[in-house]
Amino acid sequence: MPRLPENFVLPAELMPDSPPSPPVRPRDAATVVLVRDGDSGIEVFLLRRVTTMAFAGGMSVFPGGRVDPRDSDVSVAWTGPDPAWWAQRFGCSPELARAVVCAAVRETFEETGVLLAGPDAAGLLSDTSGYAEQRARLESRDLSFAEFLAQERLVLRTDLLRPWANWVTPVVEPRRYDTRFLLAVLPSGQLADWATTEADHGGWQSPADALRAWETGEIALLPPTWFVLAELAESGSVAAAFAEERTVDRVLPKIIREGAVLRLLMPGDPGYASETDTVDPTDPAVSR
C-alpha cells in the first residue's frame, strides 16, 4: 500500500472536540472507480462534490454513496459473479454483498449516467440518454433500482466490476461509512457526465495528473481517494488493473490532532496501536 505524503493533512474541524461515545456505527456505502484507457494510459472519472454536502463537500471523489435498503432486493436480474463470491472478497454476508454491488451500479448511474447493465448476460447499452427520467427518479428515491431494471428488462452485469478496497471512517468522526470500492470500466459508447445535484464538476484524468492537481491545491482529496489514485497510477492500463489479484482488507485509519490540522495514522504506522481511539467492540466495522 502506498504511504500518505507528509503534507497530507485534514482540516481540524473535521474532528469534534468531543468524539461520539460510543462511536457512531458506520453506514454501508459503495464507491465505483470508473476507468478507461486514454491516450497516455489509464484514466479515472472524478466528481467534485458541491460544497453544501454534509459529508466531503468540495472534495473530488469517485461516484458512490450509501447503500439503500432496497438495494438488497433479490428480484434484481443478475449475471456474473454471484453475491456469495462478492461476500467472500469483501468479508461480509451475501445479503450485504448483493446490496453493495447494486448500490455501486445504481449510484454510478445516478451520478454519471453510466449504467453497468444490459439487455442480457452478454449485452451492454451503448447509450443511456433514453433513461434520463428514470435516472432522476432513482436519485430522488421515487424509483428503486430493482424496479428500474425490471421495467426496462435490464440485467445487472457484475462481471464488469472488480473488488478493489474497503475503507472505514475513523471512529472519532460523527459521520461514518464502511465503504467498499469497486473497479469498473466505462462501457463502449457510453459517456460519463456529472448531471447530479451532488456535484458541480466532473471529468476524466490520469491518476498521476489527479495526484499532481492535489499537490498543487487544485483539487481536494479524501485519504481513500488518494490511495486508490496512487495504486492505479502504478497500473498503467485498464487491463493491468483488472488483472490484478487483490486481497481486500478493511482499512480503519485513526486521526491525531497536531495544532490546527489533523493527520491520519494507518494500520502499521508507528503509534497506531498506542492511540486510544479504539473501536467499540459492537462496531460492525470490526465485529463482522
TrEMBL record:
The keyword Kinase does not apply. Keywords: Hydrolase, Magnesium, Manganese, Metal-binding. The keyword Membrane does not apply. It comes from Actinoalloteichus hymeniacidonis. It comes from the Bacteria. Its cofactor is Mg(2+); Mn(2+). CDD domains: NUDIX_AcylCoAdiphos_Nudt19. Residues 1-26 are annotated as: Disordered. GO terms for molecular function: hydrolase activity, acting on acid anhydrides, in phosphorus-containing anhydrides; metal ion binding. Residues 25-235 form the Nudix hydrolase domain. This is NUDIX family protein.
